[in-house]
Amino acid sequence: MISLLSTIVFVFSFWVGKIVYKKKINPISFYAFIWCGMIFLYGLRLIPFSDLTSESWTLIILSYFSFFCGAILVYAFYNLNGNLELYKWQKKDFFIFVNDGKYLNLAIIILGSIGLIAAIQHWLHLLNQYGSIAEVFIHAPRVYRYRIDNKDQGAIPFLWLFSYVAIFLAGIFTAYKKKITIGAVIAIIGLSLKSLATFTRSGVLFGLLEFVFAFILFNNIFVANNKRQSSIKKILGSLILILILISTTSVVRLARTGMDSHFSQGASSSLRQFENGLIISPAVYFYLASQIVVFSKYLEDDFPEKNLFGESTFFPIYRFIGKFDLVEKPDFRSKGYYTPFWSNTSTYLGNLHKDFGYTGVLLFPFFLGLFITHCWYKLFLNGNIYYIITLTFLFIIIGMSFFALQLTVIWWVGLIFSFIVFTLLKNINIVTS
Q: Measuring CA to CA, how many Å separate 160 from each of 214, 387, 410?
């Protein structure tokens, strides 16, 4: 019944989203895909999950409705003002492609190379510790735990973050050139190597969402204005890059088999058939469906962990000032719960509740829906290309919302440096024109 109801809600949301945004892939349809998809998987009960409490169901439904209301409010505002005509893009609007994208491509190569060098240095550090690539993978759980506990200090900090800036720019440039470029390959390889060095999957998902939505949004601009039509070559090229990222997550999962093998013990017989699957497996199903159960368990907890005000929302700030002992430095790890298996990620609603209580759970989705819809109209109706940056990173928040509130250092660095690159390209365009 739960899976059926979630399907009905998704179909209705998809229909409303098509009306509001005039595109099939839009903020409402994507939010519905993430949350209805997670609830659909939970409803299948291929792993014997605990039942959700009435409180958790109420907050999930109200937060969904809140996001919906924020988006519809902006739609009503623009509709009442009669301003729903698509902007007619002109050559001057595409200032980031000065000299046919020469400088944009150079920025991608430079930023991607910095991230790649940082990833290679991390691997050299691991090889110095463990002796061989095989030994690194054998000790994957230990490498992962050391990273979580912040005990591995051998890797160069922060430079690897530039891979995420390069991947966002590469998504745009791939849509423009209709082919894979060397900069995109460098950025993807750098991110993949770094993720393999830390045996984490969330960073790969972040990069995947970055590339996909930068590509989709810019491609929509070209198609809507008949600049360039989608091509098989462009789509296939992008799929290859996406498959590289997906393959990275599969390799990480296989390397962490010792940590994830217990998920098969409680899985249904039909799900156990995919125990060693690259894409579908008990572990993947658990990670996609269990987060709302963790949220429910967290709400039931009489002794939840104590957080600083807005700790998850302002996590990078608290980590920074914590170095000077101005506040207690927050931990990367949250309290975990058995669902029946242990997990400590309670969706972004769990983070918002820890930070701001019920107010955060209800208001943040509302303003997220409102702001992302406002940015959508600013891009497609007013022709401000800067909004493609904001939109992409807001889509990432939605895409990662099943997991956690993704206002991390990666998010902020990607957002800020993308604005910087756009501004530099705009100034170069002014000087050269």
A: 20, 25, 10
Residue with tokens 């509740």: 353
Exposed/middle/buried for residue 4 (C-beta within 10 Å: 0-12, 13-18, 19+): exposed
What is the C-alpha separation between 383 and 176, in angstroms, rounded? 17
d(CA 119, CA 308): 33
Q: Is the distance from CB of 350 to CB of 52 less than 8 angstroms?
A: no
Phi then psi dihedrals of residue 298, to 5 deg:
-60, -45
Distances 87 to 27, 74, 224, 376, 394 between C-alpha atoms, Å: 19, 18, 9, 12, 22
The DSSP 8-state label assigned to residue 349 in this structure reads: H
User: Which residue bears the tokens 């208001």?
Assistant: 363
Cα–Cα distance measured from residue 151 to residue 140, given in angstroms and rounded to the nearest whole number: 15
**Token pair of 196, please?**
């393999």
Average pLDDT, rounded, for the chain: 84
Residue pointed to by tokens 């705009």: 426
SS (H, E, C) 135-158: HHHHCHHHHHHHHHCCCCCCCCCC
Q: Nearest 10 degrees: CA dihedral of 251, 255, 258, 263? A: -10
What's the CA gap between 344 and 142, in Å, rounded?
19
What is the rounded CA–CA span in Å between residue 231 and residue 64?
Answer: 35
121 has pLDDT over 70: yes
pLDDT digits over 277-296, tens only? 556 677 778 888 899 999 99
Q: Is 343 helix (H, G, I), strand (E, B) or coil?
A: strand
pLDDT of 32-84, one tens digit each? 999 999 999 999 888 888 899 999 999 999 999 999 999 999 999 988 876 67
User: Two tokens at 394?
Assistant: 């807001």
CA distance 426 to 260: 48
296 Cβ contact list (under 8 Å, min separation 6): 50, 51, 52, 53, 55, 56
Q: Look up residue 292 and give its two tokens.
A: 């709302």
**Amino acid in the structure at residue 224:** A
Which H or E run includes 301? none
What is the value of pTM for the model shown?
Answer: 0.91
Tokens of 390: 């904001």
Task: Give the 3-state secondary structure of residue 306.
Answer: coil
Q: Give the separation between CA 73 and CA 373, rounded to whole angstroms.
A: 9
Which tokens sit at 208? 């995947």
